Amino acid sequence: MKKVLLVCLLMVAFSTQAQENTEFKTETIEFIKLTGAGAAFDNAIAQIGAMVSPENLEAYTKEANGTLDGLYDKMADLYMGEFTQDDIKQLVAFYSTDLGKKLAEKQLGLTQKAMMFGQNWGMEVQAIAQKYN
């Protein structure tokens, strides 16, 4: 009887944990989409789709969009390894504000510009290093 009770308790605990993880993952995917990643992925699919013939564009778009669930799932796992569920809830709340929406809208462009700054800086430092070679 004790073994049956223990097994039942373990099953309830596992089920509760699975539900919490599912909720956590759902919230994390919502956060990722709120940051502008969803729009960036949609744009990438559209840009790559420009190479597809018009008669195959609908099928391509459907299949390409079908890959997003797997991508969001992997990205959610990545974020869930770094942030708690409470952190994600707070981030979702922030990205739901006007300021958060503004940040999400501008984030990709800012990141691209910052990467150019970083590349230019890296070339500058490389030139300095070559002076001392």
Task: Characterize this entry briefly.
This protein has 133 residues and is an all-alpha fold. It has six helices and no strands.
Could you characterize the architecture of this molecule?
The chain is mainly α. It has a domain at 44-107. It has six helices and no strands. It has helices spanning 2-34, 37-49, 57-66, 68-80, 85-95, 98-131. Helix 1 (2-34) crosses helix 4 and helix 2 packs antiparallel against helix 3. The longest helix is centred in the last third of the chain and has 34 residues, at 98-131. It is extended. The chain starts with a helix and ends with a helix. Residues 5-10 and 12-16 have low confidence and may be disordered.
Q: Which labels suit this protein?
A:
133 residues; mainly alpha; 6 helices; 0% strand
**C-alpha geometry:** extended
Which regions are unreliable across 5 or more consecutive residues at pLDDT < 50? 5-10, 12-16
Number of helices: 6
Please report which band the strand proportion falls in: under 5%, 5-15%, 15-25%, 25-35%, 35-45% or over 45%: under 5%
Sheet having the most strands: none
Structural class: mainly alpha
Rg value: 22 Å
Percent of residues in helices: over 70%
Order of helices and strands: HHHHHH
Q: Let me know the average pLDDT.
A: 88
| Number of beta strands | 0
Distance linking N and C termini: 77 Å
Protein topology:
Blueprint: H1 2-34, H2 37-49, H3 57-66, H4 68-80, H5 85-95, H6 98-131
Helix pairs in contact: 1-4, 1-5, 2-3
